[in-house]
Specification:
The protein has about 400 residues and is of the alpha+beta class. About 45% of the residues lie in helices and about 15% in strands. The structure holds flavin-adenine dinucleotide.
């Protein structure tokens, strides 16, 4: 199937429905003029349909490969596409200009994310998780951590992950057992196994920054004893470049239907070196920054997959020949008419389209009000616009 990016629908929503230009006086948003946003959406449509979509089937059929040296090879073409993603500055769209971002409203980033997710969901999860890691460090990291990690996450040269789930604990993170032992130099030694870690290991970024939930020795049981740590795959050296290999390893890949191109990893922390983010035992609150972003991301994935499914169904309905139209043959030279002539088929397609367009409008509206590049702008915008539905 050829993916047709819904560029006009996105532009209509942002310009005419949400009127994002009315935020243009907010600090840092001077550059979000609608004609600039229009161009970004056009280019997002081109990149996602021409570069990412052709890799979707390849990625799922070939999948990622785990290697005995604990590395993971992504499907053919992913590495080159990721290099284009980084070169095009796409990971920086909605990020803070202080760290190399473009400072555009998160909703513009969402527009790009929806298209990437429709075109190739497995691929789009890599930058998606990286953006989540960026947001968690932006909100809870120390100035040094922000300076060290954020520019790399914003550029996409380094990837990000969230390490929450363990074999015995998913929804109820209060049960987690991964242990953190404080060291004299202020770091922590992290030990434990995490599962289902999206983008946990791959060959596309020069470093991977794991955000890990663990319990510091002696911390209270349950959710009140969980802390958040940065565990880089390669420990940054004095110049901030990837240095010594940290003892965090991918022990295998797990099955996730339809997203074989995304490396879903079992991650083993074998006394890996970690740096505490924020305060001890306050990790879950910080991780919720990332999880809340992931929630909007999961809603977006639903819209993106529905859009892709709608496009496939509409194409099929125009090609599949069955029966004749009630108002006389519409394909008189063929053996039958395409099924799109039947009112009930059209009804089903229009139902899908209505749900998708309403869902997308709700998603973009939420993003306009809830997620801006910096916490201060998020609060400012929420105060100003929370009460209005355009
Ligand atoms: C596509 C995908 C990507 C993922 N990526 C990551 C990742 O990058 N990092 C990571 O750490 N994890 C990741 N996960 C794992 C995910 O976080 C867990 O699957 C999730 O936390 C649920 O845990 P579980 O699967 O163990 O389900 P369980 O916790 O075993 O729950 C099973 C079922 O019981 C229900 N349930 C549980 N408790 C309650 C309750 N109190 N009340 C009502 N119902 C309840 C749940 O809703 C669910 O339906 C990913 C999962 C998926 C599907």
């Amino acid at each position: 199937m050829t993916y047709q990016p819904p560029v006009r629908d996105h532009a209509f929503l942002l310009r005419d429905v949400l009127e994002i230009e009315k935020y243009a006086d907010l600090p840092g948003f001077e550059d979000a003029a609608i004609d600039v946003v229009d161009q970004i959406i056009q280019e997002a449509g081109r990149f996602t349909s021409e570069v990412l979509a052709p890799l979707n089937a390849v990625g799922d059929k070939q999948g990622c490969t785990w290697n005995p040296d604990h590395t993971v090879t992504t499907p053919k073409g992913f590495k080159e596409a990721y290099a284009q993603l980084v070169a095009g500055g796409w990971p920086a769209l909605g990020a803070d200009t202080a760290y190399g971002g473009q400072g555009l409203p998160h909703v513009v980033n969402l527009s790009f994310s929806e298209m990437s997710s429709s075109a190739n969901m497995a691929f789009s999860m890599y930058p998606g998780l990286t953006h989540g890691a960026y947001s968690a460090i932006l909100n809870g990291g120390s100035p040094e951590q922000k300076a060290l990690y954020l520019p790399h996450l914003v550029s996409g040269n380094w990837g990000g992950t969230m390490n929450l789930t363990e074999p015995h604990c998913g929804t109820d993170l209060g049960l987690l057992r991964t242990k953190a032992v404080p060291q004299a130099d202020g770091t922590y030694r992290i030990s434990g196994t995490k599962i289902w870690i999206s983008g946990g290991e791959h060959d596309m970024a020069e470093n991977i920054v794991h955000l890990v939930l663990a319990r510091i020795e002696g911390a209270p049981e349950g959710v009140r004893g969980i802390s958040l740590f940065i565990v880089p795959k390669f420990i940054p050296d004095a110049e901030g470049k990837p240095g010594a290999r940290n003892s965090v390893f991918c022990d295998g890949l797990e099955e996730k239907m339809g997203i074989h191109g995304n490396a879903t990893c079992v991650i083993r922390h074998e006394e890996s070196t970690g740096w505490l983010v924020g305060e001890e035992n306050r990790g879950l609150a910080l991780m919720f920054v990332m999880m809340n972003e992931a929630r909007i991301g999961v809603g977006l994935q639903g819209i993106a997959q529905a859009e892709a499914a709608y496009q496939a169904a509409a194409t099929f309905a125009k090609e599949r020949l069955q029966g004749r139209s009630l108002t006389g043959p519409k394909n008189p030279d063929g053996p039958a008419d395409p099924i799109i002539v039947h009112p009930d088929v059209r009804r089903m397609l229009m139902d899908s389209r209505a749900v998708i367009e309403a869902g997308r409008a709700f998603l973009f509206w939420t993003a306009c009000r809830a997620t801006w590049p910096t916490p201060a702008l998020t609060r400012l915008c929420a105060r100003r616009a929370m009460t209005t539905w355009p």
